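User: For this week's homework, look closely at the record that follows, marking any run of repeated tokens, and judge whether sequence predicts the tokens.
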Amino acid sequence: MRTFITLLSCRAKFLIIFLGLFGIASGVNAGPILSATSAQINSGGPGSGSINDTLNQNGLAIGYTSGVTDFDSYIASNPSHTSTYSGFEWFSNPGSNSASVTYNLGSLQTIDALALWNEEAAGIGVLDLFTSTDGINFSVLSLGLSPTDNSPYPAPYFADVFSFSPISTQYIRFDMSACPQQPANYTSCAIGEVAFRQGQSNVPEPSAITLLGLGLAGIGFSRKKKTA
């Protein structure tokens, strides 16, 4: 009987440890998709169309709920963006081959990926990303990104996903350059839609810490009984 109880105690102990470790691992899983709450054109504007059309899901074939819909699952559904310009895309001023836009997440958020629907005619050739917590002082997030040059024009287009280390930020600045031109006689940068993935910090969730603590306590209790 004592052997059976000891066996159950060992199994329970290892189950608690496993659940604790699983809880910690699950704390760094991919998070929901986030849309910006507003955007500001820093250069290359006012341009054509509304910059708000790049963050309000206008033109996306499949919608999502910001802060709720799982980012990876949504992207896996391969949502396309319409090639129609009016009411769905933003273009920088004609004749400009570079532009800059800052997206505001509305509050400090931890993000670890960007989804960019790179407009299929003008779009972005090279993208540099910068982040800021106050909208004034910016630091480098990623340089020299190469979004997909979507062709032929016109056609629905899909998202590029760029991942990076989790960072807590509120503002993300897009510096665009070397924008491809289709047709060749219209020089401009353009954006279809942008969205972000909410990342998780590497700090274990309280529930995971609790489970791990219970597991360690179980080990200590078991050892204490053996020495008694």
User: Anything to note?
Assistant: The radius of gyration is 24 Å. The chain is about 25% helix and 30% strand. The beta strands are 33-34, 38-43, 90-91, 98-117, 126-132, 139-145, 159-177, 190-191, 193-198.
